[in-house]
Amino acid sequence: MPKAMPTSTLRNINYCIKIGYQSRTEIPYYLTAHDESKIHQPHVYELAAFLAHRFLCTTIIDLGCGTAEKLAPLAKEFDIIGVDFGQNIAACRDRYEWGTWIEANIDQPYELPVEKHVLEKSLIICADVIEHLTHPEFLLSSLHSLLDSCPVALLSTPARDRVRGVDDTGPPANPYHVREWDLSELITLLRLQQFRIEHAGYTMNNTQDRGKTTSLVILTNHHQPRITRAPDDFRVIAIIAVHNEADVLAATIEHLIEQKIDAYILDNWSTDDSYEIASRFLGNGVYAVERYPSEKPSNNNRDWAQLLTRKEEISRELNADWFIHNDADEIFISPWAGINLRDALFYVQQCGFNAVDFTLVNFQPTDNDYDSGTSLDHFKYYEFGKRPAHFQLIRAWGKTHSINIASSGGHNARFEGRRVYPYKFIIKHYTFRTLQQAKTKISSRIARSELDRQQKGWSRHYLEYRDDQIIRNPSTLHLYSPDVFLKDMLVERLSGIGIRSDQQSELPRLNPPNAEVHTQQITNKIAQSSLPADPLASDYRAQLTRYMESLKEL
Question: Which one of 50, 146, 268, 319 is least enclosed by Cβ atoms within 10 Å?
Fold first, then answer.
């Protein structure tokens, strides 16, 4: 494993914070104050519980736990280890019978006295702690050692540019903070210290103003496989049931082709050009086009369970590594920028998982101007799916002969030995495109799904739509930008946490720091260091340049 940057060099470049920033040299002891009306980093602890379940963790370790109020709900399900010192750890011991409370000043060198077999089943939280430390290298060293065994760690800290403004040069306005980073500086620091960053973005700072002003980085175990290009023989097939989706079907198939995924089309006796459009792609992205059932139903009813059962049969019959239960108006994407869906599924498999859950992102029409057959990029505004069924959408699975998607209406792929990947992928859903298309789809779905509604309770939501709800006011939705979405909706998209209470105000888009200028500033500072010559300095300059270039891809 490459070596971390020497502490002396790290200190000399002010822990990767921009040139000219002034840190504090000392701060008073910080005793955590609990205010039930204003909970800080609420989603960090909720996300910790979510990921701990999915990583099959039994213990949560909180580095810099303060007085541990936010750990109390987690103590009902997990063993808790809290690390702090002074009045904070004394308060934990006095207030809580649960928990193991370890006294350690993480602003000094320390080792956590926890056995390896416990660490292997532990998730680490370090929520808004690093900004309080004069010597954060000691925390980072301990965290790095823990991630030799622990599967995942969550590290959060105030995003300086969002809290103080992009021109802030310190010291922090908060008298208990030594220094503050923006997200790109924090990522640089962590990468120079050889951490594996799985995801990075922003989360809610507190429950009062709800601003996305806290940086959150999800760190993974050092021995986790890396994302690589899937081998040529790794095959993914999306099975798509279609009925009268001619205006978007080509766009869906073309997206799958871009993702290097084959499509198997089940046409449920469309009366528009859906069958013909799919047939044009045969041998070029479409493996097969099948009319299903083989004879047109006399009553024109849609038997959704029967269609899902046929999808199960196809996945058992075909030779492929993964299958996706895809609808014709859905675009499936990976949770990483620049990583296609096929490569992402291969990575999931390499990590030891065989099923993927998804977060539903509903794109809504805000005008009536969509032209049939054109790009779905026309739709700029979205909201998250909020119906109960939207919070478990396990729609991709590895090859198995025991697959069952029909019993859940297609929402939850069940099979023996299922292990769901901890982080959700994304479905971009385009149910309605124009007012006329929406009216036609709603009336058709109501007429064709009567048996499903009566017998299984499916598709009832189509009874709730009104014409004046189809074309939406943009002010009630989020404006979609891929970069902003991936960063600002980090917790929501990866876990679903925060979606039900999601406010519709447009999130800020801040200009990212100039990566080339930042790289040169830090490189110059290393070169001009008055410290003894570091024989690895040239390697670190090159490494830093590579890291800063990679930030552009986040």
Answer: 319
Please state, as a whole number, how many other Cβ atoms lie within 10 Å of the Cβ of residue 238. 27
Answer yes or no: do 160 and 61 share one domain: yes
Question: 43: closest CA among 70, 62, 66, 19?
Answer: 70
In the chain, the N- to C-terminal Cα span, in Å, equals 23
In a domain, 509, yes or no: no
Backbone angles phi, psi at 148, to 5 degrees: -70, -25
User: Among residues 103, 97, 53, 54, which one has the least CA distance to residue 78?
Assistant: 53
- The tens digit of pLDDT for each residue in 144-202 reads 999 999 999 999 999 999 999 999 999 999 999 999 999 999 999 999 999 999 999 99
Question: What's the CA gap between 85 and 31, in Å, rounded?
Answer: 10
The last residue of a domain, from among 224, 245, 280: 224
Integer Cα distance of 511 and 502 in angstroms? 24
Q: Give the span between the Cα atoms of 365 and 446, in whole angstroms.
A: 21
Q: Quick: pLDDT tens for 485-540.
A: 999 999 999 999 999 765 443 343 333 334 444 444 444 544 444 333 333 334 43
Check whether residue 344 and residue 403 sit in a common domain. Answer: yes
Spatial distance between the Cα atoms of 323 and 8, rounded to a whole number of angstroms:
51
- Do residue 216 and residue 248 come from a single domain? no
The number of beta carbons lying within 10 Å of the beta carbon of residue 121 is 17
Q: Which of 96, 104, 62 is nearest to 81 (CA)?
A: 62
pTM of the predicted protein model: 0.89
CB 187 within 8 A of CB 544: no
C-alpha span between 536 and 5 (Å, rounded): 9
Mean pLDDT score of the chain = 89
Q: Are 45 and 123 in contact (CB under 8 A)?
A: no
Query: Of all residues in the chain, what percent carry a pLDDT higher than 70?
Result: 87
Sign (positive/negative) of CA torsion 345, 347, 352, 358? negative
* Mean pLDDT across 431-455: 82
Average pLDDT over residues 453-472: 74
Name the residue type at position 404. Answer: N
Domains contained in the chain, number: 2
Which residue range(s) make up the domain with 163? Answer: 7-224
- Dmax (CA) for the chain in angstroms is 86
pLDDT tens digits for range 213-235? 999 999 999 999 999 999 999 99
Q: How many CA atoms lie within 13 A of 85 on its CB side?
A: 8
Which residue intervals of 470-510 are DSSP H helices? 482-488, 490-495
Give helix 183-192 / helix 537-551 axis angle, nearest 10°.
140
Nearest residue to 106 (alpha-carbon basis) of 155, 69, 35, 71: 155
* CA-based nearest residue to 544, from 135, 13, 166: 13
Q: What backbone phi and psi angles, to 5 degrees, belong to 159?
A: -85, 105
Residue with tokens 């982080």: 423
